[in-house]
Design brief:
Helix content is 71%, strand content 0%. The protein is built from 15 helices and no strands. The protein is globular, with a radius of gyration of 30 Å. The two termini are 54 Å apart.
Length: 409
C-alpha cells in the first residue's frame, strides 16, 4: 500500500516578510516587564532630579538662544567671540533676575512690620470666626505652646538647606551653560554624523528643538502680556511691589494650567494686609479675569499649535514632572515631554500613531504628521533616486492590484 507523497509547501514570494514568531514571550509578560522598566526609570529620575533638572534647564536655554548664535556666526563673528558674547548675555540675565528677586523679597520683608496691627486684627477676626463655628482657640494655643522647638529648628535648617541647594544649582546651571554654548557650534556636524545611520533620530531632535523654541516664544509673549496687565491692575488698586508681582506672573506663566493660581496668592495676601478682605478679594477677581482670558482661552490655542500637545496631556505632564523633578520640573514640563516624545515616538515611524492620542489635533488635523521623509499625500519617500532598488521603489502598495501591461505588438 503506497503512502501519499507529501505536498511541498510553496516557497514564499520575494520580499514577503517572515511569519511572526509565535513561540516568543507572552504579551502579558511583556507588558509586566515594560511596566517594571517604567517604574525603575521613574525612580531613577527622582533620585537624580538634582542633576537632571539643571541639565534640562541649561539645554532649554541653549536651544532658546541657538538662533542668536547662528545669526552672529552669519555676520562673520569668530566662534570664540560668539560664545563669549552669549555667555555674558545669559549670565547677566540670570544674575539680574536673581538680584531683582532678592531685592524685591527684601522690600517685602521690610513691608510686613508696617502692617503688624492689621495682621493682629486679622488674627483676632479669624479667632472669633473659629470660636463661632465651635473650634476652641485655647486648645490651639495650648498645642502651639507645646510644640517641639527642635522640630521648628529642623524646619528652619531645612529651609536654609533648600536655599543653599538652589544657589548650588544656579552655579551648576551657569557652568553647564558655558560648556553647552561652547559645544553648540558643532551641533550641526554631530547631527550630520548621526543622520548617516539614524535619519529619523535627527529629524526627531530637530523637531524637539523647533517645538521647544516655539513654546518658549509663545509662552514668553503671553507671559509678558499677563505681567503688564497684572502690574497695571495692581498699581491702580494701590498694591505695593507691583514689579515683584509682575515678575512672578511672568515666571508662573511657564507653569501650564495652574501657574496663575500660584502667582495670585502673594499679591492677594498683601492686598489683605493693605486694604482688608475686600481688596484681597478684588485682587483675586482681577487675576482670575485677566488670566482666564489670556491663559485659559487664548494662550492654549497658540501653545497647542506650537508644541502639538493637547491640553489634557500638558496638565498631566505638569503633575508628573513636578512630582518627579520638583518645582523646576513644573517649569520644564512641556520641554521635558517634548524630549520624551522625540526619543520614543518621533524617531520611530511605526509609533507615529501616538500623535493621534496626545496631539492637539485629531488624525485629520495637524496632530497627525506623516512619517519622516514621507510626503503628505502618498507617504512615499520624495527623495528616492531613480534607478536605485527598482524592485522596491516601484513596487505597488500592499493590497493594490498589479498593473496591467500592454500587449506586445
Amino acid at each position: 500500500m503506497s503512502t501519499p507523497s507529501a505536498t511541498p509547501e510553496p516557497a514564499p514570494a520575494a520580499g514577503t516578510p517572515p511569519p511572526p514568531n509565535t513561540a516568543g514571550i507572552p504579551r502579558a509578560l511583556m507588558l509586566l516587564l515594560g511596566a517594571a522598566a517604567i517604574v525603575v526609570t521613574i525612580a531613577g529620575l527622582q533620585v537624580g532630579a538634582w542633576l537632571i533638572a539643571p541639565i534640562l534647564l541649561a539645554l532649554v536655554i541653549v536651544i532658546a538662544i541657538a538662533p542668536l548664535q547662528s545669526w552672529l556666526r552669519r555676520l562673520g563673528w569668530p566662534g570664540w567671540l560668539t560664545v563669549l558674547t552669549l555667555v555674558l548675555v545669559v549670565f547677566a540675565a540670570v544674575v539680574g533676575l536673581v538680584v531683582l528677586m532678592i531685592a524685591s523679597v527684601g522690600q517685602l520683608v521690610a513691608l510686613v512690620p508696617q502692617y503688624s496691627g492689621r495682621i493682629q486684627g486679622i488674627t483676632n477676626s479669624l479667632t472669633a470666626l473659629l470660636n463661632k463655628v465651635g473650634f476652641d482657640p485655647a486648645h490651639a494655643e495650648q498645642t502651639a505652646s507645646s510644640a517641639d522647638i527642635g522640630k521648628i529648628a529642623n524646619a528652619v535648617a531645612g529651609l536654609l538647606s533648600s536655599i543653599s541647594g538652589a544657589l548650588t544649582s544656579l552655579v551648576f546651571i551657569l557652568a553647564l551653560l558655558l560648556f553647552l554654548i561652547a559645544e553648540a557650534g558643532g551641533a550641526s556636524r554631530r547631527l550630520e554624523a548621526i543622520g548617516a545611520d539614524r535619519p529619523h533620530m535627527v529629524e526627531a531632535m530637530l523637531s524637539f528643538a523647533h517645538g521647544t523654541r516655539r513654546y518658549l516664544v509663545v509662552t514668553a509673549i503671553f507671559g509678558l502680556i499677563v505681567a503688564v496687565l497684572d502690574s497695571v491692575a495692581l498699581a491702580i488698586m494701590g498694591i505695593p511691589l507691583v514689579v515683584l508681582w509682575g515678575l512672578l506672573s511672568f515666571i508662573t506663566n511657564f507653569i501650564p494650567n495652574i501657574g496663575f493660581i500660584i502667582g495670585v496668592i502673594p499679591p492677594a495676601l498683601v492686598g489683605l494686609l493693605v486694604g482688608g478682605w475686600k481688596l484681597g478679594l478684588a485682587v483675586v477677581i482681577v487675576y482670575c479675569v485677566l488670566n482666564a482670558i489670556v491663559q485659559s482661552l487664548i494662550q492654549p490655542h497658540f501653545t497647542g499649535d506650537a508644541v502639538g500637545l493637547s491640553t489634557t496631556i500638558t496638565f498631566v505632564a505638569l503633575l508628573f514632572w513636578a512630582w518627579v523633578l520638583g518645582p523646576l520640573g513644573a517649569l520644564l514640563a512641556i520641554p521635558a515631554t517634548l524630549l520624551i516624545k522625540a526619543v520614543l515616538v518621533d524617531c520611530d515611524p511605526s509609533a507615529r500613531w501616538v500623535d493621534a492620542l496626545i496631539g492637539a489635533a485629531g488624525p485629520s488635523g495637524k496632530g497627525a504628521a506623516p512619517a519622516p521623509g514621507a510626503s503628505a499625500e502618498t507617504g512615499a519617500s520624495p527623495d528616492t533616486e531613480p534607478g536605485t532598488e527598482p524592485d522596491q521603489a516601484t513596487a505597488p502598495p500592499v493590497g493594490a492590484p498589479a498593473p496591467r501591461t500592454a500587449p506586445a505588438t
